């Protein structure tokens, strides 16, 4: 596959204006990123969902800035020609703008991210402005915000009534005015997501937000059922069942080891005859001569 330069925020805005859908995938490591780039993905998000997906945490809260730097660096190495966005994890941008900028610096300089993502609406816009003014592209995230899961009481669909819809619309407008280059909408009713997408001039990328956003994002491990046990999600389309394939393949390997059919003749290395004679002489072994 021919390589090309990574997209930038000007090109992403042009895609919105021209009605060209934006594809995004959430990935956490080198091989996943490499495969996503080879498949032609537009954006890779290194999500703090790495805690749920790879470590089986029950929320994203335990994920640290060190975790995000490590995984972002791995993804960038795998997808050198793709636009990479890194999540700012829990409480890394809430204490002060100075602390937020310090953590942004780590994701950009150590992780080599092209942009960062923050969860929240109007309440974080002052921080958004400071980060954008420092020269960092920033992706907003509203709707279901996993870092606030204990505050909102669980993983619920957002925007189901007029008050909630108005709040989401105001959050989207505020993030646009603060300088965000795009917004992720997570688990938002389709009607509200459609309204927000039409209202703001920046791209809106949905996950569980219906058909009318400017783009879509799914988690690598979800769309491939690469987990055990896999939990069905209404908003996810399964493209391959890699989990079952992996489990069956490892099971076959275990069987082959147990019945000694692996390694076979084609998997072993042979020494020169003089080495064999020096080690074993004319000794016989079970199954024939060495």
Automatic annotation (TrEMBL):
GO annotations under biological process?
methylation; pantothenate biosynthetic process
Location, primary (coarse class): cytoplasm
The keyword Cell division is assigned to this record: no
What is the active site of this protein?
186 (proton acceptor)
Q: Which molecular function term from Gene Ontology is one that the record holds?
A: 3-methyl-2-oxobutanoate hydroxymethyltransferase activity
Q: Which InterPro entries would you find in this protein's record?
A: Pantoate_hydroxy_MeTrfase, Pyrv/PenolPyrv_kinase-like_dom, Pyrv_kinase-like_dom_sf
Q: What pathway is it annotated to?
A: Cofactor biosynthesis; (R)-pantothenate biosynthesis; (R)-pantoate from 3-methyl-2-oxobutanoate: step 1/2
Assigned EC number: 2.1.2.11
Highest taxon above the source species: Bacteria
Required cofactor names: Mg(2+)
Localisation? Cytoplasm
Which SUPFAM superfamilies does UniProt cross-reference here?
A: Phosphoenolpyruvate/pyruvate domain (SSF51621)
NCBIfam families, per database record: panB, PRK00311.1
What family, per the record?
A: Belongs to the PanB family.
Subunit composition and interactions? Homodecamer; pentamer of dimers.
Question: What protein name is recorded for this chain?
Answer: 3-methyl-2-oxobutanoate hydroxymethyltransferase
